[in-house]
Amino acid sequence: MRQEAPVVRLYDPTLRQPVWVVTRYKDAVELARDPRFTKDVKKLPEDSPHRQMRSADMEAISRHMLSADPPDHTRLRSLVSKAFTPRRVEELRPRIAAIASQLLDTAKDPGSMDLLDAFAFPLPITVIAELLGVPVEDRDQFRDWTTTIISPPSEGNLEPLREAGRQFIQYFQQLLARRRADPRDDLLTALMSAEEQGDRLSPLELMSMLFLLLVAGHETTVNLIGNGVWALLNHSEQLERLRANPALIESAVEEMLRYCGPVETTTQRWAAQDAEFHGQVIPRGETILASLLSADHDPEQFPEPERFDITREPNRHIAFGFGIHFCLGAPLARLEATIAINLLLERLPRLRFGVDPSELRWRDGILVRGLQRLPVAF
Predict the structure, then answer these.
(1) Is residue 155 part of a domain?
(2) What is the pLDDT of residues 216-247, one digit of tens each?
(3) What CATH number should be reported for the domain holding residue 158?
(4) How far from each other are the two terminal CA atoms of the chain, in whole angstroms?
(5) Cα Rg of the chain (Å, integer)
(6) Are 228 and 334 in contact (CB under 8 A)?
(7) Could you say which of 150, 156, 289, 369 has the lowest number of CB atoms within 10 Å?
């Protein structure tokens, strides 16, 4: 597609709608900057199927910064950006290391585990739940809801997504009521304070922001750790190189993000008006996505893109997106992955696949790139 149809109109069989896909690196970057394409579904025609799909339940978890254009996007992002500055994130280092170490202590005895269930999932969900001020013991419930909501609908049936949305909203309405009665020093209380200022964060935006932070705060890092370990175990020479020199971990994580990043495509943009883009006319209201993984394997940008090289330099991947929607949690995801993977290799020197790698299966859908399971032995 990069060579022959870099901007191509495909058909989404689950949503039963056309979708344009951009596959070249330079085009993906350009799309991220192009103001003719909107993130705000309310800018589409009233009869747009995308607007009609948004029930009240889905709307209440969709009014966040990833589905907004400036100036709303700017306002929403500024409300949470202080919690994710490099300095604030660095302060979490001891706690992240303690959680990771504790997880390995409990998983170590049998000599095998599903790395996703036992380590890659509980680490980031615990970190983001503590940061937000959400009960960590409810983490399995969050996982069920988020997995359902971001999975492609089965045969176009949106009801499971809507039901998960309803349950999520109900849970957080109860939690917010408790927190209003008992404020604490956490991000949840800080966001509620912003909501109470009236014009800064509406109740709908508050609920949507909580959803985004909880989902993005763990889903991407789960798969960054899982995919990164998968890549290392598939490239034994790179694994040994990292074991011999743990100081390479930051460079290694950047290559994991490029080579097998946790997000396959950008979230939806729509043509606000008919828009010509690299020789193709995108009709008003139709969806356009960039394939981040395709862009990060573009030989025009990355020499030998199919080679996994933990010392690759330069490595200007776009695994976290580009432009104003660049991932706010990137510093946190990077820190969690560097701590988790180095600790894993240090504590489990005989780490290896627990099944034949050919048996591993990737999750359905084009948004998230992650394995269903990752059995390992040690």
Answers:
(1) yes
(2) 888 899 999 999 999 999 999 999 999 999 99
(3) 1.10.630.10
(4) 40
(5) 21
(6) no
(7) 156
Q: Which two tokens stand for residue 299?
A: 């030989």
Res 291: pLDDT = 98
Query: In terms of residue numbers, what domain contains 329?
Result: 7-377
- Count the domains in the chain: 1
- 3-class state of residue 308 by DSSP: coil
pLDDT of residue 53: 63
Residue 1 lies in a domain: no
Measured N-to-C along each axis, helices 159-181 and 203-234 cross at an angle, to the nearest 10 degrees, of 110
Q: In the chain, how long is the greatest CA-to-CA distance?
A: 60
Asked if residue 2 is part of any domain, the answer here is no
Summarised one tens digit per residue, pLDDT across range 98-113 is 999 999 999 877 899 9
Q: Cα–Cα distance between 25 and 319 in angstroms, integer?
A: 11
Q: What does residue 283 show for φ and ψ, rounded to 5 degrees?
A: -65, 150
In angstroms, the CA 193 to CA 189 distance is: 6
19 burial level (CB within 10 Å; 0-12, 13-18, 19+) = middle
DSSP 266: P
At residue 270, φ and ψ (nearest 5 deg) are -130, 150
Phi/psi of residue 173, each to 5°?
A: -65, -40
Burial annotation 349-377 (CB, 10 A radius, 16+ → b, else e): eebebbeeeeeeeebeebbbbbbeebbbe
- With beta carbons less than 8 A apart as the criterion, state whether 367 and 150 touch: yes
Q: Minimal CA–CA distance to 148: which of 129, 135, 167, 133?
A: 167
Alpha-carbon distance 165 to 152, whole Å? 14
Return all residues near 66 (Cβ < 8 A) that are at least 6 apart: 39, 212, 216, 267, 325
Contact 243, 237 (CB under 8 A): no
